[in-house]
Amino acid sequence: MARIVFELEIEAPADRIVEALDTEDGIAGWWTADVDFAGGVGSIMKPGFPIAPVPFELSVDEVGLGQVAWTSVGDFPPHWAGTRVLWTLTPTAAGTLVHFSHDGWASDEGPFASSALTWGRLMDTLKTYAETGVAAPLFPKG
Q1: Gene3D superfamilies from the xrefs (predicted)?
Q2: pLDDT tens-digit map of 107-128
Q3: Which CA distances in Å does 59 have to 13, 40, 48, 110, 140?
Q4: What pTM value is reported for the model?
Q5: SS3 128
Q6: Rounded CA gap, 57 and 120, in Å?
Q7: Which residues pair with 103 in a beta bridge?
């Protein structure tokens, strides 16, 4: 199994980061402006993307100041099926240390590399959004 991992410090409190990860406005602020999401444990997030024929589907498994977890439950994209995204949030003197992992990939071949690159870019947009409150999603509506 392959795994994507990133870690960075965000100069914002954990509750602001949780809001960015567990609300429709939050997801639209850093990831994609095309999102259908009620938020909260048990909800299904449906982020859409300009080049994707259908939205992704992610089940929210856990939401707390220390951790947010999602599981890919849809059939699209097929390489995401059954994978798990985990955000671990640890307070620091300057804000919050965010440890990100996207686990359960069948292989590190094929679309894995481009997904890892995209998550790296998304970590930057999440950081900017959480620190400034200014929405600038990597995937704006188009």
Answers
A1: 3.30.530.20
A2: 999 999 999 999 999 999 999 9
A3: 24, 10, 15, 24, 22
A4: 0.96
A5: helix
A6: 20
A7: 3, 84
Mean pLDDT value across residues 38-59: 96
CA-based torsion, 74, 80, 86, 92: positive or negative: negative
Q: Where are the alpha helices (DSSP H) in the chain?
A: 14-21, 24-30, 112-132
Residue ranges of the domains in the chain?
2-132
Paired tokens of 12: 């914002």
**Cβ of 108: how many Cβ atoms within 10 Å?**
12
Q: Give residue-wise pLDDT tens across range 9-34.
A: 999 999 999 999 999 999 999 999 99
Q: How far is CA 116 from the centre of its chain?
A: 12
CB distance 125 to 137 below 8 Å: yes
Pairing of strands 2-10, 96-105: antiparallel
As a whole number, mean pLDDT of residues 76-85 equals 95
